[in-house]
Design a protein that fits this description.
Length: 272
Amino acid sequence: MLDTQTRPQPVDTTYRRPIHWRCQHATHAGAVRKLNEDAVFACADQNHWAVADGMGGHEVGDLASREIVQGLAQLHLPEALAESVERVEDCLQGVNQGLQNYARMELDGATIGSTLVHLMIRGRIGVVLWAGDSRLYRFRNGALTQLSRDHSQVEDMVAMGLINREQARVHQCSNVITRAVGVEEHLQLDMRLFDVRLGDLFLLCSDGLHGVIETETIARIMADRDPDLCAQALIDVALRAGAPDNVSVVVIKGEPGRVDSSNGRQCAQWER
């Protein structure tokens, strides 16, 4: 008989199936404004996405949002979550400083800025970084959940119990934000980590969407579960609602990837 200490042990060939993230994005100047100061970013190879909303009341907001997405596009992110987050933060701090310098030299110190929401996924963990009122939603099991919290005056008032959600939607200060990239000498970003699952849908959007469409309507559209259809439908509904601001969306869906069982390596190819 073989000694139990030398008996060959079974090899674990069970691999956790990877998630492939399929996305679609769209942006529109809206029904009123001629200039689109929003910018969207999508990098499927490195699983990170962003929406930046140049502030309409400030000088050259389109430059601010464009600088953000161009900075993100130059990044090469590793698989390690912590290191990737650090590189994104460093990038955004650099953009923030660049906008500050530009405002001092070219705009006589006038404010230039942009809101930002950035999503990154590593394995079964997602992390959102944001400044301002561009939002991240997750649609799971038929429920839509807001994962970011607006940096806005009315959101602070709601948190303090001064007004309710319905009052916040029509409040005269509803467009006053308290954080943005480029506004302060040192950029303050909020961050939240959360789990991700196969079948999850994520929506990144500017306030041009959530400012005119009720959450229930967004959830109804996301229930279609196809990124291409959802992205276009969200833009269309915002335009039908009058779209006084630019509208931008990125819709991402977690679909089953393929495991190469011959060597245990995970392949990012999507199986149809």
